[in-house]
Here is the input.
Amino acid sequence: MTYLLRVVLPDRPGTLGALASALGAEGADILSVDVVERGGGSAVDDLVVDMPSSRLPDVLITAAEAVDGVMVESVRPFAGALDTTRELELVEAVTARPEDGLDLLADGVPRLFRSAWALITEATGEGRRVRRVASSSAAPETEAAELGWLPLDKATVLDPAGGHTVPEAWTDLDTELAAAPLGRPERAVVVGRPGGPAFRPSELARLSHLAGIVATITG
Here is the structure.
């Protein structure tokens, strides 16, 4: 079984090695590591870890948090290894086929951000009615009549409890949501990550940057 493990750990030499040793002692093999963000003396890393099918994923949490200063944010099943070149590949694909750029973005974002789905929505007309522009295959079918947080001026975490109204289907399975404006404030790309982890500021910055590039290419 392969899992995606997000950890917060002290940003000092030897910590990642100690973490790898602790996981290895439980039969886990780290396939890849992605630094999500770094600052303030700590780092947030995504680790793709291979485990024998006979072991429970809870073992990963226990082993990781036995290392001084390490905290596990989430553990969830994962297919494949982390591949940071996919972001460049997506931009290249959009450049080659700008007429399909929004569909390519919606399809590609879930892989880049280890999420389940993405969709592009736009508020139009005097009543600010919302229409779906594009979506990935796993995006919820529910359409929103209106989204009070559109227009959107910057990438943000959408918090339904904090006033960001979204369709109920978007929040199934404790889905974490993030959105970024796409070319203009009235249009946004929305990303859903069921079960977490929460979107970090560095991920919001990446999403905003990617949306800006695609919007420029597609016009």
The mean pLDDT is 90. The chain has two domains: 2-77, 85-218.
